Amino acid sequence: MSQPRATKVLVIGYVWPEPRSSAASGHVMQILETFLQQGWDITFSSPAGAGEHPADLAALGIRQVPIELNNSSFDAFVSELAPDIVLFDQFMMEEQFGWRVEKHCPNALRVLETSDLQSLRHARQQRLKERLKASDDLDDFNELFAPALRQEFELMAESDLAKREIAAIYRCDLTLMISEVEIELLVQQFNVPRNLLHWCPLMIEVPPRPFVAFEDRAHFLSIGNFRHAPNWDAVLWLKTTIWPLIRQQLPAAQLHIYGAYTPPKATALHNAAQGFHVMNWAEDALQVMSAARVCLAPLRFGAGIKGKLVDAMLCGTPNVTTPIGAEGMQGEEPWPGAISCTAQAFADQAVQLHNDRLVWLDAQAKGLALLACRYRLAEHGPALITRLNHCREHLPAIRRDNFTGGMLRHHQHKSTQYMSQWIEAKNRSSCAAGGQ
To answer: For residue 283, what pLDDT is reported?
Structure first.
């Protein structure tokens, strides 16, 4: 008796995964590994060039197929593959390839992986820029942090980015959301049906090893991909304001800043005399995190949840961050460190964690409790598979009830069809003119 065919999954990635460079790629890898545990047949495609630190997908048994934007060769590829599930990594990939999937694989379950709401992150970045133009106060940013969801909606509602991103959510059958705060924003303010969304945070297993002791650790650490704008802004706030305040209290303190794709503007900030060390990329992020006494994440804008702070908890390293950094991460659990809204409070709490062993140990214990409560792979992995299987079983009803999504797919398909016909007609006209 023949075995049933394995579920075929096509993942269309904005980039090739680099889990040692970004939390977003780490989350994609967690999802891929969850699929592999089901015995699913996975193909990963991307129009991006190769990065500096790519994951070895082939070693995991995942096929890698480069694709191109605006190239009809994708049509033959996806038609031959005939995937059961198509996962778009970031909404731009749904915009570029979703209509082709719709045309050639109309019965494939369409899933969007957001990592974070880019339109929310962009709107917050614009708000920070306006605040910095309006005031030279680099200490107090209370008004930027954790505003009401209605305020966030009003900040986003007129942007093209929000309209594009939320349209992609509607066109998909299910969207994976990493932050519960963003789910509530979409449901309460943008009126996105809750049944189109699935909470899928970072999924981890706590390694069975003892933490490095307080006495065996030294210095402060900050880490994050420099291509991610919130990380670069955090480094600037550290350099200009927070780190000098820490050094006033701890003159011998050292800060080590790690990040992939370090640009010259970042290395120019390196100053050993000030204890401000730009260290470039970390071969093993967990190793350097375990050697540090305190992790600093002074994020003034951003979205989603922060992989660096999950890594800090995995290593037993207390952290100091902002309400933006902690957003969507703790639920009802206490924070494993401190959350600050001003540079002075941030510095004071960083110094306390660095110096006070009992406060430090208490924060470490809270980190373990938070991981166990909210980020267990054993809980979220099976929940994801259950939800995907449910969606596949009830796909006609899901699409019928999501009339807005069907309408958007219809118009997307028609507009791209007309554009393709126009391009073909123009090309024929050009060839005819050239032959005269």
So the answer is: 83
Task: Count, in order, helices (H) and strands (E) of the chain.
Answer: 18, 13
Beta carbons of 273 and 252 less than 8 angstroms apart: no
What's the mean pLDDT when you consider all of the chain? 92
Burial class (CB in 10 A: 0-12, 13-18, 19+), 395: middle
Answer for the pair 262, 278: CB distance below 8 angstroms, yes or no.
yes
- Estimate the crossing angle of helix 149-156 against helix 118-134, to 10 degrees: 90
- Whole-angstrom CA distances from 131 to 136, 147, 151, 248, 401 are 9, 14, 15, 27, 42
* Single-letter amino acid, residue 400: R
Are 324 and 124 in contact by the 8 Å Cβ rule? The answer is yes
Q: Find, among 219, 229, 319, 334, the residue nearest to 279 by Cα.
A: 219
Among 23-27, 266-270, 315-319, 422-426, which stretch is predicted with the lowest mean pLDDT? 422-426
First to last CA, the chain: 64
Question: Is 50 exceeded by the pLDDT of residue 329?
Answer: yes
Instruction: With 0.90 as the threshold, say if the pTM is over it.
Output: yes
Other beta carbons within 10 Å of 32: 23
Q: Is the pLDDT of residue 232 over 80?
A: yes
Q: With contact defined as beta carbons under 8 Å apart, do 45 and 12 qualify?
A: yes
Non-local CB neighbours of 390 within 8 Å, separated by 6+ positions: none
3-state percent breakdown (helix, strand, coil) of the chain, nearest 5: 55, 15, 35
Evaluate whether 29 touches 56 at the Cβ level (below 8 Å): no
Specify whether the backbone of 328 is left (phi greater than 0), alpha (psi in -120 to 50) or beta.
Answer: left
Of 114, 166, 312, 325, which Cα lies nearest the Cα of 230? 325
Fold of the CATH domain 8-121+129-203+378-424: Rossmann fold (3.40.50)
Backbone angles phi, psi at 66, to 5 degrees: -65, 145
CATH number assigned to the domain with residue range 214-375, chosen from the 4 options 3.40.50.2000, 2.60.40.420, 3.30.830.10, 1.20.1300.10: 3.40.50.2000
CB 345 within 8 A of CB 322: no
Domain segments of the chain as ranges: 8-121+129-203+378-424, 214-375
